[in-house]
Recover the amino acids of this structure.
């Protein structure tokens, strides 16, 4: 470890900045956010630096650097393009035992500025030891995306209740377990969405030992793990139990904790399936046992996913539940196949329907679906594709209407079969497509990007 990461309190601390250009301005802005008392020494200052001087009432000395300038400083920043000046500042600070950062010059620094993810009071610092500032920025971007925007609010929520918990729970292990339930449970979710009353209620339940578990109905998207929402990923990583469907990419389960229980509750056409009633009972029983449950469903839980039914069951049972949308198969398959679902002057509306066969037929509003000027997306239509296309043609949709079938959308092995209402079914059978599939019908298919 080349550097020991520390967080330095600079409230009202004297900090010297040598240099007044654009680079200096970036450091001065950060120092002002930390509450430092900044003094600038430079023969001239840039417009951005002057704006900070005016906004914060900073002290400025307009002349060249002199060795005595570092006296009394807690931290010194050298931000000039003059190597001789930077080296002199470094040598003066080293001799005086002061902290010195020469911007973009690790060899002339004994402290460096990390990349910062700011969710005050939560701060995350990233450093490559000066090896690659670009890499530090990239990693910072990854963390910025992963951390909830209101993580700082959760930290303040916890801070305000620490003394109360310490007075109520005597042993350290017990307090750690309590805070684990708070920061990964319903209280945290309520804080993230800004519901103070619900957050306090959940905290009280956790403090009194009355807290039960909770269930998150989470959309896993159409397959590609990178299409998970950030909230979905966070909940998966905090779950004690994950109940997952047949359409969920198993790679997504790799994001779960090692000790999380993973239970397959999928349903598959003409194959042994888990009854919906059994899934409902399992979610309720696991939550009542105090466990955090993620019900992971392919695509979006509320588009042909029975998510609404499951939410109703959980609410009737008094179980805390949160619903997290996912990218539905229609959007995922269309995007990865290069097909726009709408296109100006061609399709101004989209219909999502299921082509699932019930009682050995596909029962849909054919006159409505056969209307021109719209895109029709059919889920679960492979087994009845001939009947679907024949019905659309019989009710007025032109046989030459473009159509496409997307198999295993967003997966590396995705296949796209393109044709028309007249010939696509035959092409699909010839290609021995097995599914899962999404069928797109409409003039938009002719605008596919290939």
């Amino acid at each position: 470890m080349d550097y020991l990461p520390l967080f330095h309190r600079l409230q009202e601390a004297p900090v010297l900045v040598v240099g007044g250009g654009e680079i200096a301005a970036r450091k001065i802005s950060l120092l002002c956010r930390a509450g430092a008392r900044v003094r600038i020494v430079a023969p001239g200052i840039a417009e951005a630096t002057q704006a900070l001087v005016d906004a914060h009432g900073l002290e400025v000395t307009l002349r060249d650097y002199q060795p005595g300038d570092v006296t009394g400083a807690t931290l010194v920043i050298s931000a000039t393009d003059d190597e001789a000046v930077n080296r002199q500042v470094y040598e003066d600070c080293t001799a005086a035992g002061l902290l010195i950062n020469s911007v973009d010059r690790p060899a002339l620094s004994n402290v460096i500025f990390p990349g910062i993810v700011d969710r005050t009071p939560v701060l995350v610092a990233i450093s490559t030891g000066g090896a690659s500032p670009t890499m530090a920025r990239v990693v910072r971007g990854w963390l910025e995306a992963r951390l909830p925007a209101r993580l700082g609010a959760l930290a303040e929520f916890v801070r305000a209740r620490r003394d109360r918990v310490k007075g109520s729970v005597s042993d350290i292990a017990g307090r750690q377990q309590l805070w684990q339930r708070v920061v990964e449970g319903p209280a945290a979710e309520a804080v993230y969405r800004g519901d103070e009353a619900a957050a306090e209620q959940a905290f009280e339940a956790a403090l009194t030992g009355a807290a039960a578990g909770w269930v998150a109905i989470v959309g896993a998207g159409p397959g590609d793990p990178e299409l998970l929402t950030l909230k979905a990923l966070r909940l998966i990583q905090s779950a004690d139990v994950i109940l997952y469907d047949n359409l969920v990419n198993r790679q997504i389960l790799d994001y779960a904790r090692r000790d999380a229980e993973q239970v397959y509750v999928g349903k598959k056409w003409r194959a042994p399936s888990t009854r919906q009633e059994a899934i409902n009972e399992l979610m309720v029983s696991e939550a009542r046992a105090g466990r955090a449950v993620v019900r992971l469903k392919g695509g979006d839980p509320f588009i042909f996913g029975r998510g609404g039914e499951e939410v109703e069951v959980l609410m009737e049972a008094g179980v805390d539940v949160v619903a997290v949308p996912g990218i539905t198969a229609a959007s995922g398959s269309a995007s990865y196949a290069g097909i726009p679902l709408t296109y100006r002057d061609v399709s101004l509306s989209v219909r999502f329907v299921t082509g699932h066969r019930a009682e050995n037929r596909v029962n849909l509003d054919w006159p409505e679906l056969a209307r021109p000027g719209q895109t029709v997306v059919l889920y679960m239509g492979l087994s009845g594709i001939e009947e679907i296309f024949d019905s659309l043609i019989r009710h007025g949709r032109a046989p030459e209407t473009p159509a496409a079938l997307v198999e295993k959308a967003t997966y590396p092995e995705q296949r796209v079969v393109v044709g028309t209402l007249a010939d696509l079914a035959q092409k699909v059978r010839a290609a021995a497509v097995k599914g899962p599939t999404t069928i797109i019908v409409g003039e938009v298919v002719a605008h596919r990007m290939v």
About this structure: The longest strand covers residues 37-42. Residues 39 and 361 are 80 Å apart (CA to CA).
